[in-house]
Amino acid sequence: MTALEVDKLSHSFGGLTALADVSLAVAPGERLAIIGPNGAGKTTLFNIVTGIFRPSAGRIRLFGQDVTRLPTHRRAQLGLARTFQISTLFPRLTVLDSVLLAVQGLDPARFTLHRRRAVYGHLLERAEALLADWGLADRAGQVTRQLSYGEQRQVELILALAGAPKVLLLDEPTAGLSPAETASVAEMIRRFSRETTILLIEHDMDVALDLVDRVTVLFQGRVLAEGRTDEIRGNPKVAAIYFGTDDA
Amino acid sequence: MRVASVAAALAVLIALPAVLSSYQLGLVTKMLIFGIFAMSLDLLLGYAGLPSLGHAAYFGVAAYTVGLLALRVANNFWIDFPAGLLMAAGVSALFGLFALRTRGSYFLMITLALGQVLWGIAFGWRSLTGGDDGLPSVPRPHVPLPWSLTEGVPFYYFVLIFFGLAVGALALIVSSPFGKALVGIRESERRMEVLGYDVWRYKYVAFILAGLFAGLAGNLFVYFNGFVGPSYLNILFSASALLMVILGGSGTLLGPAIGAAVIVGLENFISGYMERWVLVLGIIYVLVTLFAPNGLVGLVRRRLGHSAT
User: Fold this and answer.
1) Whole-number Å distance between alpha carbons of B148 and A194
2) How far apart are alpha carbons A103 and A80 in whole angstroms?
3) What is the DSSP secondary structure assignment for residue A92, as one 8-state letter?
4) Does residue B176 belong to the interface with chain A, where contact is any CB pair within 8 Å?
5) Do A111 and B178 touch (CB under 8 A)?
6) Residue A228, pLDDT above cutoff 60
7) A13 phi-psi bin (left φ>0, alpha ψ -120 to 50, beta other)
8) Rounded mean pLDDT of A166-175?
9) Which among A90, A106, A115 has the least Cβ separation from residue B184?
10) Residues on chain A touching B165 (C-beta within 8 angstroms)
């Protein structure tokens, strides 16, 4: 069975075609990079898979279940998580409170309004364990917007991991980072559980190819090429769009 | 520290009737009632990040319900009081369906418009609501207690009990997983959806709860005042509630109650000298925005060296 299957997905904004007939399938535990120049439709694809946009045509299946018409939060309940390219963290909350929200999101206690959250010790334990695991324990009490940009990107990843997702979509996790920060975020992704299926959008082809098993290249809303990392590295069409026409 | 200051405040509130004149006690009673009203609005504005400009609707609907039942049907506390709450919750459940389709300034406009619809009904349907004469001589309820609520001191304690219950309930709500989720929604709705939260459902429940507590304030107010008119449904009243919240400190539990006390006190004081109360309200708004954007609570916290949240 596939973890995530995208079947002939199309989407347009007004008259502008963002995605046309995009199909891809990812096996459980597999890591797939989606690369392509700006405007290729990578983030649009993530927005459709997570239910933020409704596609004009096509289906999305999560472990065989058709989720094309499910709202975003229901997909999250099924084990789909994502990060954002532009940070949408909780700027005025502390790091610990943010992670607590993420942990609580898939817990049955999330609707409770007649008991204090402090009663739910397991939520706090899990949040603290996550922060300790990923080396941010000493930042727990800090307000998110006071963290460095690199640390905020790490929080972004921790929030996505909090629910122990089955399928994780990472949207340019290293965008805007220094080489050193990029290396530490890449290291973090490498450490993610192999049971988590990962789709990675990455601008930096070297970073991307290093982290994944397989690559899909999007160009102008269509799948231009797909294959193992070594096949993509040597693909002349991919080289052409990356070094010939990508002016971004 | 926190528990001690709450206990101290409670002790002061309980002791007040011993030291205040009956006029002053009436003023404090009004402060408590408007404090509940402002706290109910803060659940939307400060916690869920929903700026409602029509919150008077639920206050007014409850006040009119209790007033009409007490005058035209029966002055029975056990029927009238729950009916007021039920109507407030019912109207907010209905209005929430429309208002929560929008966000930001559109939310502000639609809550304003819905509130004005009720104002229009109260103003225009003279045979039921008395039009702009309102409903005068609403009697206070009979409760099975040795004291009559027509007296100032027993009525003060009657209100104080509801104030305490409201503070307790709201404190529990904002520290519950539900309340924490509301804050998350205020900070980033999209993120919360992706984390598995049914954002609409949270906002809707918050909207109804806010309406319910506003209704509680409306219930108490019509008993306190013995009168309700369309001015308790209109935009000016909604706007003063917003000002109470912002002045006290939105997103804090007790800040809005403090803001309400200050506004009620100032209005009472200034009305003795001039008629331009609305002008003064406007000036307060400007001053708060410029010098205390986090409200009085934020100001005190900054002085004490805490970070405002």
Assistant:
1) 72
2) 14
3) T
4) yes
5) yes
6) yes
7) beta
8) 93
9) A90
10) none
How far out from the chain centre does Cα A137 lie?
23
Q: Is the pLDDT of residue B130 over 60?
A: yes
What 8-state DSSP symbol labels residue A172? Answer: -
Instruction: Write out the two tokens for A213.
Output: 């098993």
Please indicate if any CB of chain A lies within 8 Å of the CB of B308: no
Reported as a pLDDT band with limits 50, 70 and 90, residue B7 is confident
> Which of A20-24, A241-245, B22-26, B110-114 shows the lowest mean pLDDT across its residues?
A241-245
Buried b (16+ CB within 10 A) or exposed e, A71-81: ebbebbbbbbb
Assigned token pair, A182: 């990029």
- On chain A, the residues whose CB falls within 8 A of the CB of B173 are 113
Interface size between A and B, measured as CB pairs under 8 A? 98
Distance CA B294, CA B41 (A): 16
Q: Which chain A residues are within 8 Å of B193, Cβ to Cβ?
A: 52, 71-73, 76
Q: What is the DSSP letter of B168?
A: H
Structure tokens at A181: 């920060």
CA A161 to chain centre: 10
- The A214-219 sheet, strands edge to edge: A80-82, A167-171, A197-201, A31-35, A214-219, A222-228
Contact between chains at B188 and A117 (C-beta distance less than 8 A): no
Q: Cα–Cα distance between B15 and A194 in angstroms, integer?
A: 65
- Asked if B172's CB is within 8 angstroms of A113's CB, the reply is yes
B20 in reach of chain A (CB within 8 A): no
* Closest residue in B to A84 (Cα–Cα): B191
Query: Where residue A246 falls among pLDDT bands split at 50, 70, 90?
Result: very low
The band of A244, judged by pLDDT with boundaries at 50, 70 and 90, is low
Joined together, the tokens standing for residue A51 give 């239910």
Which amino acid, B229?
A: G
Distance from CA of B38 to the nearest CA of A (A): 20
Alpha helices (H) along A61-120: 72-77, 95-104
B300, B302, B304, B309 alpha-carbon torsion, rounded to 10°: 90
